[in-house]
From TrEMBL, chain A:
Pfam families: COQ7 (PF03232). It is found in: Mitochondrion inner membrane. This is 5-demethoxyubiquinone hydroxylase, mitochondrial. It comes from Rhodosorus marinus. The keyword Metal-binding applies. It is a peripheral membrane protein. PANTHER family: 5-DEMETHOXYUBIQUINONE HYDROXYLASE, MITOCHONDRIAL, COENZYME Q10 BIOSYNTHESIS PROTEIN 7. Its main location: mitochondrion. It catalyses: a 5-methoxy-2-methyl-3-(all-trans-polyprenyl)benzene-1,4-diol + AH2 + O2 = a 3-demethylubiquinol + A + H2O. Belongs to the COQ7 family. Signal peptide: none annotated.
Automatic annotation (TrEMBL), chain B:
Its main location: mitochondrion. It is found in: Mitochondrion. NCBIfam families: diverge_rpsU (TIGR02396). It comes from Rhodosorus marinus. Membrane-associated protein that warps the membrane surface to access and bind aromatic isoprenes with high specificity, including ubiquinone (CoQ) isoprene intermediates and presents them directly to Coq7, therefore facilitating the Coq7-mediated hydroxylase step. Participates in the biosynthesis of coenzyme Q, also named ubiquinone, an essential lipid-soluble electron transporter for aerobic cellular respiration. Keywords: Lipid-binding, Mitochondrion, Transit peptide, Ubiquinone biosynthesis. Pathway: Cofactor biosynthesis; ubiquinone biosynthesis. One of its GO terms (biological process) is ubiquinone biosynthetic process. One of its GO terms (cellular component) is mitochondrial inner membrane. This is Ubiquinone biosynthesis protein.
């Protein structure tokens, strides 16, 4: 319809609510960004639930402060995406209730098996999330997203924190978990499936 | 005939864009929409209306190909424009109100629905035809997208910031209110559509009140679940520690 340049000029002169409104915004670039924010929001909710599930078991043990710290960071991530969802007018994924239960169950279940298994679960999940953030950082680097530099910086910061969590998991003997390889493969596959679904539904 | 018209329309499209630059093309389509809307009360949402609009603009009758989707595209484009206009007026009036006396959700929602019907008013006698066109299976998806964007806009103006299932519940509820008030409005012969306005206020009030009840109920269920969960996990911990 409109050339990109005309569009950018048009948008920069319009108020903020108009720029994000589905009634006015450029459909194509909004769809790309919406998809990103939607899946990240779901992922952070899942992460928070996993740590909540683990904490239910490890409260009062020596692991509590470690997990608590990671959980705090995930909460901050989730809040950031909560804000983005309403600010950018993104439809949240319809799977929210499912991820809420599934995340908690995964955290709780792995913690039941033991401390190493819980950490193995953390490592697997955080690895997939960090990888996924890397894909988005690359995508936002492409042409047409020059204005999204703040979002890119935010995702970068979150990715670094997820990678720290992964390192903490390895430090706390994740690799000593029973059937580490198999378990981490299964969890990773689950995360990939969740990402695929959350981007679409 | 219509195929030839379509193709000619495309040629006109591409010619006009190469002649006068892209921004002109947008305004031609806008102008065409405005011209067609003037003819809608008399000719309805039809191909004939598009042809007449082309004549009115001194374009070749084949220029109705500017809207390759035909009469449905006319409806969709009008719906989009009316939603945009409603959204803009609603933003302005709520901004003013917010400064003066603060916003109440139910007022914003009701005002949004009323403002939209006000914009549709010139086409009220023909609106049932548009509704029928929108309801065709092949058009339903786009119609629904337009309507969902619209109710999303109203909720956002009212300050909604839900990020989970509530997001869906609120939008579906408002969409239902919007569609049912539209059907009331089509057959409303009271002066200045007072009956419809009353209907809207009633519906929105029960929607917002009902939502508050559901919300309170959910909150108390959540609190109960949390208690059960923490009791269970503390029991489990003490079991693991050998009591």
């Amino acid at each position: 319809m409109m050339s990109r340049r005309t569009f950018v000029r048009y948008m920069s002169s319009s108020p903020k609510w108009k720029q994000n409104s589905p009634l006015f915004a450029d459909k194509e670039s909004k769809a790309v960004l919406d998809k990103m924010i939607r899946v990240d929001h779901a992922g952070e909710l899942g992460a928070r639930q996993i740590y909540a599930g683990q904490l239910a078991i490890f409260r009062g043990t020596s692991l509590e402060p470690v997990i608590e710290e990671m959980a705090e960071q995930e909460k901050k991530h989730l809040n950031a995406f909560n804000r983005l969802i309403s600010e950018r007018r993104v439809r949240p994924t319809a799977m929210m209730p499912v991820w809420r239960v599934a995340g908690y169950a995964l955290g709780f279940g792995s913690a039941l098996v033991g401390k190493e298994a819980a950490m193995a679960c953390t490592v697997a999940v955080e690895e997939v999330i960090a990888e996924h953030y890397n894909d988005q950082i690359r995508q936002l680097h492409e042409k047409g997203f020059e204005k999204e530099e703040p979002l890119r910086e935010m995702i970068k910061k979150f990715r670094d924190e997820e990678l720290e969590h992964k390192d903490i998991g390895i430090e706390f003997d994740a690799e000593m978990a029973p059937m580490y390889k198999a378990m981490s493969q299964v969890i990773k596959a689950g995360c990939h499936a969740a990402i695929y679904i959350s981007e679409r539904v | 005939m219509s195929l030839i018209g379509l193709r000619t329309g495309r040629i006109i499209n591409s010619l006009s864009s190469s002649w006068r630059g892209l921004s002109t093309k947008v305004s031609i389509e806008d102008e065409f929409l405005t011209a067609a809307l003037k003819r809608v009360p008399e000719l309805g949402w039809t191909q004939a209306c598009l042809v007449q609009a082309a004549k009115d603009l001194n374009l070749s009758p084949a220029a109705h190909g500017l809207f390759p989707g035909g009469e449905v595209e006319l409806v969709h484009r009008f719906v989009k424009r009316s939603h945009q206009e409603t959204a803009s007026t609603l933003r302005k009036s709520t901004k003013k109100k917010d400064k003066e006396e603060g916003l109440r959700t139910e007022d914003v929602l009701a005002e949004g629905l009323k403002a939209r019907l006000k914009i549709l008013l010139p086409y009220r006698d023909r609106w049932h035809e548009a509704v029928a066109l929108q309801a065709f299976p092949q058009n339903a998806k786009e119609s629904l997208q337009h309507d969902l964007s619209f109710v999303d806009e109203i909720w956002n103006t009212a300050g909604d910031d839900s990020v989970d299932e509530a997001w869906y519940a609120k939008r579906v509820a408002l969409l239902t209110a919007m569609k049912s008030s539209e059907l009331t409005w089509i057959r409303d012969d009271t002066e200045e559509q007072i009956a419809t306005n009353e209907f809207i206020e009633r519906t929105i009030k029960s929607l917002v009140f009902g939502w508050k009840q559901i919300h309170d109920h959910l909150e108390s269920t959540k609190a109960m679940l949390l208690t059960i969960r923490s009791t269970a996990s503390s029991l489990l911990r003490s079991y693991q520690n050998g009591y």
